[in-house]
Design brief:
69% helix; transmembrane; transport; 214 residues
Length: 214
């Protein structure tokens, strides 16, 4: 188990490094988009290369940051269902979901995309648009994104298995923020509106009201 956890930590470090680096592409996308719009409006000049660069960068952000999103536990969940489940039930859902859905899907995409990218690279494929960019780097981003997501899925599977079967503490961000508030609220005593503690009972009230009528 220690070897698997070491592998998981290594994958997490790579995912974090790539995700933080890719996050800066958001600024670059904004600058490219704004610059292209300004030049087109002011000088009536445009280029397919600049337009395609925008979706190249957007694709890079989406694909390469997907694994980081999974690591940070920021992927989409059905919160209305997740909120009513216990922590252990959610762990089991994640564990089985990685085995039955995430890893098979990403593995299939890697298998399908590898010849697709190699064929594009060998042909030196370019955009069919006039002045467009070379295409194989954009296709390679798809493959790189699914490889990272597959590795991060393995990392999450290892960590979830260690939590379920090895008693490891869950350090996943937001790990205990879904069901615990609901569970604690259900166990807490009723309080008056405003969140204040109920007033203490007097002696008569403690005795069942026997002193209310003399």
């Amino acid at each position: 188990m220690s070897a698997l956890l070491s592998f998981s930590r290594g994958v997490d470090r790579v995912t974090t490094f790539v995700g933080r680096g890719v996050s800066w592409l958001v600024l670059l996308v904004v600058l490219v988009s704004a610059g292209n719009a300004v030049i087109r409006k002011l000088f009536d000049v445009s280029s397919n290369a600049w337009l395609e660069l925008q979706w190249y960068l957007f694709g890079a952000i989406f694909m390469l940051a997907a694994a980081w999103t999974l690591l940070k536990n920021e992927h989409i969940r059905v919160d209305i269902v997740s909120n009513i489940l216990s922590k252990r039930t959610r762990d089991w859902i994640d564990f089985l979901g990685h085995i039955l859905a995430l890893l098979p899907f990403t593995g299939l995409m890697i298998w399908l995309l590898t010849p697709y990218v190699l064929q594009s690279f060998n042909r030196g494929e370019y955009s069919p648009n006039a002045g467009g960019l070379i295409l194989w780097p954009a296709k390679a981003l798809l493959l790189a994104g699914f490889i990272l997501l597959f590795l991060q899925g393995l990392s999450e599977l290892i960590k979830r298995g260690a939590i379920l079967f090895g008693g490891m503490e869950d350090t996943t961000p937001m790990a205990s923020s879904h069901a615990e508030p609901v569970e604690l609220a259900a166990l807490a005593p009723d309080r008056p509106e405003g969140g204040t503690e109920p007033p203490p009972l007097d002696d008569d009230a403690r005795n069942g009201g026997s002193g209310a009528i003399r």
